[in-house]
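Open question from group meeting: does this chain pack into something compact, or does most of it stay loose? Before anyone orders reagents, we agreed to write out a predicted structure and look at it together. Recording both the input and the output here so the notebook holds the full record.
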Amino acid sequence: MRITLVQPAIGHRLGESYIRSWQMEPLPIATLAGLTPKGVELRFHDDRMEAIPYDEPADAVAMPVETYTARRAYQIAGHYRRRGVPVVLGGFHPTLMPDEASRFADAIVTGEAEAVWPALVDDLARGALKPCYHGERTDLAGIAVDRRLFHGKRYLPIGLVETGRGCRFRCEFCAVQTFFQRSYRARPAGDVIRELKSLRRDKKLFFFVDDNFAGDLRAGRELLPELEALKLRWITQMSIHAAHDEDFVRQLARGGCRGVLIGFESMNEANLRRMNKRFNTMKRGYAGALEILRRHGIGVYGTFVFGYDHDTPDSFAEAVEFAQAQKMYLAAFNHLTPFPGTPLYRRLRDEGRLRFDAWWLDARYRYNDLPFVPRNMTSEAVTQGCVEARRRFYAWPAILQRSLGNRGDGFMFRNFFPINALHRSEISLRNGYPLGDEAEFAASTP
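Structure tokens returned:
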């Protein structure tokens, strides 16, 4: 049996190449490959970097789908289904929107694939594919990740590894809390170490893709001493509450952590309360947490969102000035996005503030548009404010000034200017980008 795995892009502009600067190996594809029983022939195509050969023989096609890639995934599915090839869709978006996804697939997988993928493949082989498979949460022990499908493709030389799943916080805008039902599970430390050892020859930097590396501090404390022995460099995402624990931060640094992505989200406490992120202001607040991270040589990629009810035109400058003064390694200034299935989406829908019923499918929507009506600004003002914030933060004098606070690790400092220059080149590059392929809009299934 031949199964084709496809990683969908956000979309494609007519007559232009895809924006390829940050393309990393798609870990969900490697996870599916690792779950696939022996004897099944797998092929893989990445829609972000190559044309999909729709006429290539295949007995089935499977795609992981996120909300931003849903429209394009449905277009791809249409091509295969018109050729009589059954399509399986899974991931965050089909789990959050199962009825919608079912319209464009022969089968959907909701929840986690580990519990159901082998059975689904067996059903395919017997011609007995069911319309829906639901994967309950399972123990993360024994996850087999197979990256052989990535050979020959030009991905960034960063090793993506999962050490845990989920997050216990209930941030209003976050789809992670819905998908994982506010739970966190750590992967066994021994499994993580074995996977890292298998990759260390080819990768100089690792990214632990966990939604929140600090989702379970006890599990983190068990893993970090073993990471210390490997002497690797890695970055990850974590909630700010862990940065107030200096002993944990010290362990992070000793274990090889060189950078953390932290969602600061807003400088306004009323916004943070509305987000259910009051823990962001705990203890000594942002400044105290950042001081501890700096003391141990851990760089910060700070993220901020705009469009919440207490934001004003001054909010952008306030966030930029804070990120600049704290000499953050990188920062993102983006508009708030109401993802389906989140409390935020339901609230904005109930308040009549959504501009589109399903913005991810609406032909009028473009990347970086605001899909809802903010309270104190126009949608256009929020989008423009985000662009101007990026322009200020990534101006050359600002980059040079921030570099002075990011010289602790030689590897990270050598990459500071190239990475910041790349962000500078993309300040407004994605504005107006289509969801889906523009060449197919007229005949697009959605």
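Observations to bring back to the group:
The two ends are 30 Å apart (CA to CA).
The chain has a mean pLDDT of 93.
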